[in-house]
Design brief:
The protein has about 280 residues and is of the alpha/beta class. The chain has nine helices and twelve strands. It has two domains: about 120 residues, Oxidized Rhodanese, domain 1 (3-Layer(aba) Sandwich), CATH 3.40.250.10; about 120 residues, 3-Layer(aba) Sandwich (Oxidized Rhodanese, domain 1). Helix 8 links the parallel strand 11 and strand 12.
Amino acid sequence: MTSDQLTLTFPIVGAQWLAANLSAPNLIILDASMGAFAGAATGIPGARHLDIEGAFSTPEGVHNMLAAEDFEQQARALGISQSSALVIYDRQGMFSAARGWFMFVAMGFDNVAVLDGGLPAWERAGFDQLPMDLGPWTPGNFTAQDRGLFLDALGTKAYAASEHAQVIDARSEARFKGLEPEPRPGLRSGHIPGSVNLPYSQLLTEEGLFRSPETVKGLIDLAADGKETLVFSCGSGITACIDLLAAYASGYQELAVYDGSWAEWGAEDPAGLRPVEKG
């Protein structure tokens, strides 16, 4: 990298910082918004769409992670190279951007960060929405190296039973305890035996910004309960990454996501391989 190119040393950046670095030659901004928030024509200037629900997910599951070779192909098609610096945001404040961040980290790429508070924070700081960069782009040379940080049900079950790891569920307390039905039809209610609950919303302010580093670390430490290896779950592997991002920013290193999350674990299980606890 040349001296004018960005090297991201922290996984969360602010709107003012991003605005000051928009001209960096290796910066690529990715809009990871999902559902009704995806596909807008305007956003942070020059941002490109990171299609978590389409091109960057498998046909199996809800939106499970791609194999390394497929992820590499899609990243290159977005114009992403090994020298790129990526900043990822979403339009809800903090919802799916952390998933985008962790996808790249899991594929061996560390020069990536999340915009704290997303597009709402950008606008509150006084910056305008401008046209997105819809391509086509010169293909990049991104190389994926799968670090094995997305787990299946069997691996997650083993960690949940381990004395040395903690499975942390980012869903609401009511869903974790089985006090309300799941939003996806056909799923059982409750949680993975041995897991603990840290709703991702507890880590955020009403504006969708992360709370103070001290508060965030305190919440993560409480959930981790002295364990260094943390596995995160949620409804479908999206908001689990918010908890994981908070843990990473708090100094934890041994981190993974249960990719199928409750969409898989909570499905009907006649063989009894995925038991459910309530309360």
